[in-house]
Amino acid sequence: MNVHLFLDINFKIVIFIKKEDMMARRKSVKKRNKIIESAAKLFAQNGYFCTSMSEIANRAEMSVGSLYVYFKSKDDLLIEIFKNYFDELMGNVEKIFTETEQHPLDKLFDGLNLVVNTLSNDKDMAKVFLVELRQSNKALESIAPEIRDKYENLIKNLIDEAKEKDLVKKNIDPELIGLSTFGLIESILFDWINKGYTKEKLLMKLERAANYFIQGIRK
């Protein structure tokens, strides 16, 4: 009886500890997300260089010491913001390219539209991506090439598929198409941020530019 009681008590203690660990992990994730959201807004509003770690901590409602437990520097925070955001975005683009039964060039249009539409729903993130990312050499060297390469590889694979099916002009360079469409997205979003016109106008400009581009490579 005593043995069973001892085991039962230990089992309950283990369950209690596991629940405590789960609650602590959830709380940690919530704090981390709040830091990322706070930093993105401050970077967009004040600029990367003009934003301090203490300002980020204040907006996230925590001490500076607690902030440094999660992120060692502004560079690390900026890199984390982009890695999380663009990993999800590129995953959604990849689904369009690989899981839908459409003409490859229709997939290309839908992918371009998804990227611009997603960024236009979060103007703070768009500003950080187009302007503030360039203020951090560490972020530029570590994350920007990764984002660009991942995107351009998705486009390259799609255009390779179109070439195999004889749906685009034979002299088309898939790598150049990836580079060109990345530049198209940057240019359209940068113009939108600088001139401040509506999202509807932004998407209309994208549609015209993307259709013009796609017609130029379609066979």
Automatic annotation (TrEMBL):
Keywords: DNA-binding. Gene3D superfamilies: Homeodomain-like, Tetracycline Repressor, domain 2. One of its GO terms (molecular function) is DNA binding. Residues 29-89 form the HTH tetR-type domain. It holds the Pfam family TetR_N. It comes from the Bacteria. Residues 52-71 bind DNA. InterPro entries: Homeodomain-like_sf (IPR009057), HTH-type_Tx_Regulator (IPR050624), HTH_TetR (IPR001647), Tet_transcr_reg_TetR-rel_C_sf (IPR036271), Tscrpt_reg_YsiA_C (IPR013570). This is TetR/AcrR family transcriptional regulator.
